[in-house]
Amino acid sequence: MIPFNKPFIVGKELSNISRAVKEYHNLSGDGIFTRHCQIWLEKRLVCQKVLLTHSCTAALEMAALLCNIQPGDEVIMPSFTFVSTANAFVLRGGIPVFIDIRPDTLNIDENKIEEAITTRTKAIVPVHYAGIPCAMERICEIADYYKLSIIEDAAQALLSTFNGNALGTIGDLGAISFHETKNIISGEGGALLINRERFFERANVIWEKGTNRKKFYNGKTDKYTWIDIGSSYLPSEMIAAFLSAQLDIADKIIDKRLRLFNHYYTLLEPIVCKAGIKLPWIDKENICNGHIFYIITNSHRERDDLLKFLNQKGVNAVFHYIPLHSSPAGMKYGRKNGNLFYTDNLSSRLIRLPLFYEMTESDVRFVVDKITDFYETGK
What we know:
Layout: H1 13-22, H2 32-45, E1 49-53, H3 56-66, E2 74-78, H4 83-90, E3 95-99, E4 121-124, H5 136-146, E5 149-153, E6 161-162, E7 165-166, E8 173-177, E9 190-194, H6 200-207, H7 213-217, H8 237-248, H9 250-275, E10 294-296, H10 300-312, H11 328-333, E11 335-336, H12 341-347, E12 350-352, H13 361-376
Parallel strand pairs: 2-3, 2-4, 3-11, 4-5, 5-8
Antiparallel strand pairs: 1-9, 6-7, 8-9, 10-12
């Protein structure tokens, strides 16, 4: 069986965890490894300030707090995304407004944003699906004109770029994931990218459970107390220690995934016309990190039949999101704007293929051979 995903160790992860315990005597967070990860991300992504979090979900929740989302405020986002994108704002009383995606990138359709804006709109949340950049130039123009915040859900997009800028650093705030299914992993884990100086001080307070602990330990106040809302958003130092080792060789990891991604693409191209399937969008002007390789089948039934066939042949392929606007919670807490044709249509036909660091080109050929067998035998 070729698994869909497989967590991996690349070097000093376990050694770093041991050092956190035995050398630095720090497990609770905000230690030397947390700071190493934050500095690495700030320098590499050219981001003004980064705070490591225990998940990308936590980073999105912090973003909702920093943008002061209040009950009744509307936040525009794609329906084709993970539940955390919406949950972060619903927890503050906000209303997700779901709009359609583009048929090429599967990202939020920037041409559908303006018609969804009302007097209650507070923010836009572009989601960079599969590490492929949204049309950030146009999204920024809209946000500037209507004075809206941009919170980039870059969970899948570490080291992807748009016009030379790292995804997550273009809007006001960005969120990244280090979940074990991502390119760079720490089991659970995430980071909040803070791109506007006006958020710096309050972000530290929210990160530290609503206290001024950071100021206190830096000698900037003589009292350590509760001053704002917040929560325990720090990851443990063991998570940061594991992540630190992965970040140190991030380029090697991304390069390997891109080689596998390109190998998939090369082997599958010959059957695209014959089978009628669609492959991921390739943007020659921007850099994608090779996070997901998917195919889009001709119908929902064909998708289900192919998934069943692949799993029977030893390939653990999976589908992706059930659109949020059609979920029970999505209908209760949010609303859709306009016709979400591409969201409904494409989400029902998409299959994600196995892609992980320790996968081999031989594994890729095996997967492609099984897909070819499926279509050559008439499904």
